[in-house]
Write a structure and sequence with these properties.
- The protein has twelve helices and seven strands.
- By secondary structure, the chain is of the alpha/beta class.
- It folds into two domains: about 110 residues, no CATH class; about 130 residues, Trna Endonuclease, Chain: A, domain 1.
- The relative contact order is 0.08.
Length: about 280
């Protein structure tokens, strides 16, 4: 299968980038995944055989099919074989399901379809999170971002966190002490805005960090940052300030289960090759 996959990649003149493209859900090569699924369809139709792990060979039925010189061998073509109909859950003689045909002829593999659906659902959740964050009170938003940073591990087990909850604090909305003595402090600013956050806000925040001798800071917003703000952060000397825009904020909240809860868990499993490696000794 490894040699066959490389041969196919060369046949289709795939670029280096195309060969290295991975599935969104993991490290597996996108092209390798598609070849593997093509093998699965052909094997279940009886056109190829899988004598041992990692190796394939054309079957007698497959040779007969090639002698017919079909214009294309696709999923619809394979439905003439009873073993393939069983594989896709369709009985011989059963009328075709147009919707099922559309799904089975998709250019995406089942793994890709699941990944695409998952990504879509994640985006919907992220959009809803941002909508809710923009409608909450500024003080509640400040508590949310502090809770998020704690959930991400900032502050550790013995650290402490707080929301300033007062005006005239120099632009600092929250503080996380990463140790019991407060020797290492992270300053937080939360901007529940619709418009972009510009450079003046960043400058004011950086200046306010000097009052508590902090070297680390995080600014989180429900919107985004201007180019000038991003450029300014890259040029700060002696301090490290991280900017988190709305899209990234929502992703982090989902990842660390802040403001969201699991609804359903799908667990995909594959055959363990190690389990079936018989001891020849």
């Amino acid at each position: 299968m490894h040699d066959l996959t490389e041969t196919l990649a060369s046949h289709f003149k795939l670029t280096k980038e195309q060969r290295q493209e991975h599935l969104p859900s993991g490290p597996q090569s996108l092209f390798y995944n598609r070849v593997a699924w093509a093998k699965t369809h052909l094997k279940n139709a009886g056109l190829i055989e899988n004598p041992v792990r990692g190796k394939v060979s054309i079957s007698d039925v497959g040779r007969k099919v090639l002698l017919q010189k079909p214009a294309a061998i696709n999923c619809r073509f394979l439905k003439q074989f009873s073993s393939y109909l069983k594989f896709i859950g369709q009985m011989p003689g059963e009328s075709d399901d147009v919707e099922a045909d559309v799904a089975i002829e998709s250019t995406q593999t089942p793994q890709e379809l699941m990944d695409t659906s998952f990504t879509t659902l994640q985006k919907i959740t992220a959009d809803e999170l941002l909508t809710r964050l923009k409608s909450c009170s500024p003080s509640f938003f400040e508590h949310v971002v502090v809770q998020l940073l704690r959930a991400m591990g900032y502050g550790g087990v013995d650290g402490d966190s707080s929301v300033t909850g007062k005006s005239g604090d120099g632009g600092i909305d929250g503080i996380i002490k990463e140790d019991k003595l407060g020797l290492d402090v992270v300053c937080i600013q939360a901007k529940r805005w619709d418009g972009p956050v510009g450079r003046p806000v960043i400058q004011g925040f950086v200046g306010s960090m000097d009052y508590i001798r902090a070297k680390k800071g995080v600014i989180l917003t429900t919107s985004q940052f201007t180019k000038e703000a991003l450029d300014f952060v890259d040029r700060i000397e002696g301090k490290k300030v991280v900017l988190i825009g709305g899209s990234k904020l929502a992703q982090l909240m989902i990842e660390h289960n802040v403001g969201v809860k699991p609804t359903k868990l799908y667990e995909l499993k594959e055959v363990s090759n190690d389990y079936f490696d018989e001891d020849e000794g």
